[in-house]
Amino acid sequence: MVIYGVALLSFCMLVGVFAGDLLGQLLGVQANVGGVGIAMLLLIYLTSLQDSRLHLGSPTRSGIHFWSAMYIPIVVAMAAKQNVIAALSSGWMAIIAGVAAVVASFALIPVLARFRPGDRHDL
Amino acid sequence: MIFETLSNVLASNALITAFVFVGLLVWVSYWFSETLTRGRVHGSAIAIAIGLVLAYVGGKYTGGKNGLADFAMLSGVGVMGGAMFRDFAIVATAFGVHLDELKKAGVVGAASIVIGVVLSFAVGAIVAVAFGYTDAVSISTIGAGAATYIVGPVTGTALGAGSDVIALSVAAGLTKSVLVMVGTPLVAKRIGLDNPYSAMIYGGLMGTTSGVAAGLAATDPRLVPYGAMTATFYTGVGCLLAPSLLFLAVRSLS
Question: What is the ipTM for the molecules in this complex?
Answer without folding.
Answer: 0.84
